[in-house]
Fold each of these.
Amino acid sequence: NFTVPASGGTLTAGTNATTFVATSGTQTITTNGRTLDFPVTVNNSATTQLAGALTLGSTRTFTLTAGTFDLNNFTLTAQIFSSNNSNTRSLTFGTTGQIAVSGNNATVVDFTTATNFTFTGTAYINSTYTGATGTRTFTFGSTAGATAANTFSVATSGTSGIVVGTSATDTFALTGSFNNINLTGITNTLSNTATSLYGNLTVPASGGTLTAGTTAMSFIATSGTQTITTNGRTLDFPVTVNNSATTQLAGALTLGSTRTFTLTAGTF
C-alpha cells in the first residue's frame, strides 16, 4: 500500500513514475487529499484501489498498463489517462467513480490499442478543460481491440461516458470506436477523424462546428438498431454503414454536396 499524510514533509515533483506492481491481492492508495506531482502507473496482476480521491499534478499522466484499477467510487484527476496496450486490464468505476482529465492539445484519453480492456460500473471520464487552445483527442481502439462491450459513449454533458464539456472553445477529436455520440450543446469544434459508432449519433440543429472532411463516420453495431439524428444539420463528411444490425434515420440525413453515403453491410 501507499499512504501519504495530509501535510508535512515534501513530496518532490518530477517525471519519474510511482508504479504499483503487486502480484496478488489489493494495493491501496491513500493520499489524504494531497496532490502527487509525479506520474502514477498500475502494472500488476492484482487490484489497485483508491481509499480516497487521487489527484496528480496538472502535467502528470496516470497509466493503466495491466491489472485492475478500482476507483472505489472516488475521483482520479490527471492531465492524461493512458491505457494503450494489449495486456489484460480493467477499470472499476462503481456508481460514482470518475476519471477527470485536465489536459488539452494532446491525446488526453489514450486507448489506441484497447485489446483486453474491460470496465465495470458506470463509466465516467470527465474532460475538464475550458479553454480555446489546441485539440483534445480521445482515442479508443483505433489500432485494435474495440468491441461493443468495452467502448465508451461520448456526450457534451452528463455524468457518464466521456464528457467533453460545454465551456471549451477548442477542437476535440474522436478517433477510433465509441458507443453513442451525443453532441447536443456543443460549443467547440469536432475534428473530422476516423470515427466508428456501435450506438447512436445525435447532433443539434446548431452550435459548435462539425468539421468538413473526407474521412468517414462509420456505423458498426453488432446487434439491434442504431439511430442517426441530425436535426436538419448537414454532415459534410462521408457516412458508411458496415454492421450486422440496423441503422435507422430519426429524420432527414443530408450529407455535403461532395460526400458519399456507403452501405457496405447491414440494414439501412
Amino acid sequence: TKYGANSWNTSSTGKTFTATAVMRLVDQGRVDLGAPVRTYVPELQLKDADAAERVTVLQLFNHTAGWQGDFFEDTGDGDDALARYVERMATIEQDSPLGATVSYNNASLSLAGRLIEKVTGKPYEAAMRELVLDPVGLHDTWFFAKDIISRRFSVGHTRHEDGRITVDRPWALPRSAHPAGGMSATAADQL
C-alpha cells in the first residue's frame, strides 16, 4: 500500500526485518533457532498444548507452526500489545500438525516479536531500532503514526468493482501486527 512519494507501508517486508533481528540475537548467542519458543516466551499457550510445547523458533519463520495464521487482534497501543496478543493466541485453531505443512503465518511473526521483547527486555520497536534499523542506517523507517504524520505521506486507496475509490481505513495495522508488517518507510530505506 503506497503512502505517498516519501513514505509507505512496508507490509510483509517487515517479516524480513523481524527475522533479521532474531538472527542478530542468534549471532549474539542469545537465541537458538532449534529451541522451543517457550524457552523465551514461557507463557505461550495454544489450543493445541503439544504444539505450544514443541514449536521451535525456526518454525515461526519457515511458516510450519500449523496454527491459524491470519489472526489480527488489536490489543491496544501500549507496550504490552504483543504480550496481550500472545495471551489471545490461546484461542486460535491448529489447522495442521506442527511441522507438517507450510502455510503463511502472520501470527507466528507477532509471536516472534514478543520473543524479541522478552530476550532484549525492550518493546519490539525499540529493539528493532537497536538491532536492525540504526546499524544499517534506516533512519526513515517508522512504526507509529505519530512518527509519520509530520512527514509527507498519503494513505492508501481502494478501487471498488463499481468504480468508487475510497480511503483505506484504518490506514495502519494494529501494534500487535508490527512484527508481521507494521512498518512504514521511504523508498530509499526499503531499497
